[in-house]
Sequence to fold (135 residues):
Amino acid sequence: MKTVAALALAAICACSIEAVESGPRRGPPITCPKELRSTGTLIVGLGPRHGSEMAILRKSDSTLFVLVSNEKVLIMPSKVFATVPLMQFNVDAEFPAGDGETQRMFSSPGEYEVIVSNDLTDSARGHRCTIQFTG
Fold:
């Protein structure tokens, strides 16, 4: 029922979270679909101790979209993000890119990488998963 409520909320917002769950979480620190279509929704599963920061890298042009940061509140506070089990994004959502300009995150077909960490500046640490966006 909680998942249904979170999915219904996603129809209204560019991103949503499901912050309440029952029982201990198990599994990998981060999961994402292998493929994403232009009519789809990106759902990223977050395991226990997944980290407090999140970014998505568009590999074709190395554009980094920092979505959750310890330094400033973007889509939610990092302390809240560290506790949520799910993040959901509409494919056509727009976010500020590394250059500060707001743009569609999934703007062209290709590989995208979801990065979750306690420190996004430390490229050797954290959890990653790759998505193929088909456009």
